[in-house]
Amino acid sequence: MPEGERRFSVSRRQLIIAGVGVVGVAGMTQRPRDKSGPREKYFLDMQDALAREGIGTPTLVIDLERLDANIDTLLTHLPNGMGYRIVAKSLPSLDLLSHIRNRTGTDRLMTFNQPMLNALSAHMPDADQLLGKPLPIAAVRTYFSELLPENGAAADQVQWLIDTPVRLEQYRELAIGLDRTFRINLEIDVGLHRGGFTPGEELRRTLEVLKADPRLSFSGFMGYEPHLPSLPTTL
After folding, report:
1. How far apart are CA 100 and CA 92, in angstroms?
2. What sign has the CA pseudo-torsion 24, 29, 32, 33?
3. 66-91: buried (b, 16+ CB within 10 Å) or exposed (e) per residue?
4. CA–CA–CA angle 202, 130, 196 (5° rounding)
5. CA–CA separation, 179 vs 140, rounded Å?
6. I need a labelling partner for 68 at 20 to 30 A (CA). Which of 31, 39, 85, 197 fits?
7. Which residues does 214 contact at the CB level (< 8 Å), separation at least 6?
8. What does DSSP say about strands 128-131 and 158-162: parallel, antiparallel, or unpaired?
9. Please, which residues have CB within 8 angstroms of residue 69's CB and are 6 or more apart in sequence?
10. Contact 96, 71 (CB under 8 A)
11. What DSSP letter does each residue of 21-84 carry, written as one string?
């Protein structure tokens, strides 16, 4: 090994050891109270249920009673008039999505990619699907090419997210080519500069395009920033 590489290797090893030492000290000072003891009956019962079913592999278990209780709590905290939209990417199960839709009484979903969009258009054609991020125009073409004729009406339930005038023009041309009307939702910059429109001339011109073109229908604004709940309240 060249001398330079040998020096780097030793230095990196020393850094790793030093880092472990720091973590060890921090762990000693912040170690929680000892809560060891017998497992709770809830988990023992779940273990017994898996054993009775002959399941011996890692398994995701959904406790429907607790799920329903959480859903009911959520609904009691929603402001009057606020609609609830299910983030579909966090629930990769059609049965689970159906259960939550029925429990909450909502038909609103947030979808994040083309395969998911096609699957939900086939199995839940009545759902109002809002894209959680702008799709490349190639993905939109693929969506329509894979959309079965009997699910054609489901495409009218999709709200396409647009973040730039250039993307809007791409969607407009595709809508004309497909002889369809696209519902357009404009992404707005909520202040963290992660994309989207800001108040000003560009947004004004975009709204004028939507108003003037019969192939485009304005469905609303969307400001999406999953990290906002984690920001300090002082911000």
Report:
1. 12
2. positive
3. eeeeeeeeeeeeeeeeeeebbebeeb
4. 25
5. 14
6. 39
7. 181
8. parallel
9. none
10. no
11. HHHHHHHHHHPPPP--SSPPHHHHHHHHHHHHTT--S------HHHHHHHHHHHHHHSPTT---
The answer for residues whose C-beta is within 8 angstroms of residue 185's C-beta and 6 or more apart is 130, 131, 159, 160, 161, 162, 219, 220, 221, 222
Q: What is the pLDDT of residues 40-89, one digit of tens each?
A: 899 999 999 999 999 989 988 889 999 999 999 999 998 888 888 999 98
What span, in angstroms and rounded, lies between the C-alpha atoms of 43 and 31?
A: 24
Q: Cβ distance 196 to 223 under 8 Å? A: yes
Domains of the chain: 42-77 (no CATH), 81-222 (3.20.20.10)
Tell me how far apart the terminal alpha carbons of the chain are, to the nearest angstrom.
51
Residue 87 structure tokens? 């983030």
Does residue 24 surpass a pLDDT of 60? no
What is the gyration radius of the CA atoms in the chain, in angstroms? 25
Global pTM value: 0.75
How far lies 11's CA from each of 1, 19, 100, 141, in Å? 15, 12, 53, 52
Q: Distance (Å, rounded) from C-alpha 116 to C-alpha 97?
A: 12
182 and 175 Cβ atoms separated by less than 8 Å: yes
Mean pLDDT, residues 197-216: 95
